[in-house]
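A.,

Following up on our hallway conversation. Structure tokens first:
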């Protein structure tokens, strides 16, 4: 019997936009539980901070982020699918406890397996630059340093 592709199983650009835009539960807390069923048990995740293997570690990462933030919104700016790979460009507005809003700009590459689940996710973003841009006075010092050293 032939396995269905990710598109036929329903995980596509439209579904990704729908899922990622709902980051809250009915109690007003950051919640990704509706997204977790779309991840493979053996998920491999990597971003500029960490590398994670397995759904338990992946859930724990999301729980840590939920505890640290008062508010979090995802805006999917652009999304394309090429076979079993979905690329999304996003803006994540996050309010860390005791801090002003920070917008992180990034993108993710999602690789979907034959069961229609995300087998790997690689996130790309400039964590410190996007956070430091929201700190008055320090933002200019940081950007001047980055231009001098790297560009």
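Then the amino acids I'd put at each of the 151 positions:
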């Amino acid at each position: 019997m032939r396995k269905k592709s990710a598109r036929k199983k329903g995980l596509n650009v439209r579904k990704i936009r729908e899922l990622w835009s709902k980051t809250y539960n009915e109690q007003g807390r950051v919640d990704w539980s509706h997204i977790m069923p779309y991840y493979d048990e053996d998920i491999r995740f990597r971003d500029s901070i960490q590398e994670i293997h397995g759904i338990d570690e992946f859930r724990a990462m999301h729980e840590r982020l939920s505890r640290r933030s008062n508010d979090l919104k995802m805006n999917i700016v652009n999304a394309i699918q090429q076979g079993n790979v979905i690329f999304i460009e996003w803006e994540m507005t996050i309010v860390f406890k005791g801090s002003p809003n920070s917008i992180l700009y990034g993108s993710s590459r999602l690789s979907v397996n034959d069961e229609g689940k995300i087998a790997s996710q690689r996130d790309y973003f400039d964590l410190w630059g996007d956070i430091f841009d929201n700190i008055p006075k320090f933002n200019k010092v940081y950007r001047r340093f980055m231009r001098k050293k790297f560009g």
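The longest strand covers residues 69-82. Curious whether your intuition agrees with the design.

B.
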